[in-house]
Design goal:
The protein is an all-alpha fold. 79% of the residues lie in helices and 0% in strands. It has one domain: Membrane associated eicosanoid/glutathione metabolism-like domain (Four Helix Bundle (Hemerythrin (Met), subunit A)), CATH 1.20.120. The protein has five helices and no strands. The longest helix has 31 residues.
């Protein structure tokens, strides 16, 4: 099915990251239920009353982690897909994808568990390195073939 080894690797790590985002959405919902902090009046009414239509710091932490994922994983999906078309070395490409994936997982765990600084910042920064590398390689490929 997937003859392009680089694209297969990209697909694997991208799917792991999308599943991670789904899990984070489920965690956010569970925290909302546990803390009785609902964003919409109809949800609050179904779960005890309008007084539960409110914000909660733990729910907001989950939401920030999820928003941060969207701000970082969506660009990775674009960059990784285009990078896969450049016929990079499969081992180098896999390392790029692995570093980003592990960095994002560590970032989420650090966010949710409120791990000591600079754990989250380091995870974020490490995950940005392969994205920056892929972006530069894409730009170089486009410029040299334009």
């Amino acid at each position: 099915m997937m003859e392009n080894e680089v694209f297969a690797s990209f697909t694997f790590y991208s799917t792991i990251l999308i599943i991670k985002m789904y899990v984070l959405a489920i965690i956010t919902g569970q925290v909302r239920l546990r803390k009785k902090a609902f964003a919409n009046p109809e949800d609050a009414l179904r779960n005890g009353g309008l007084q539960y239509c409110r914000e909660d710091p733990d729910v907001e932490r989950c939401r920030r982690a999820h928003r941060n994922d969207m701000e970082n994983i969506f660009p990775f999906l674009f960059l990784g897909a285009i990078y896969s078309l450049l016929d990079p070395n499969p081992t180098v490409a896999r390392i790029h994808f692995l570093i980003f994936c592990v960095g994002r997982i560590v970032h989420t765990v650090a966010y949710l568990l409120q791990l000591k600084a600079p754990t989250r910042s380091v995870a974020y920064s490490v995950a940005q390195l392969p994205c920056f590398s892929m972006a530069l390689q894409i730009l170089f490929a486009v410029i040299t073939h334009w």
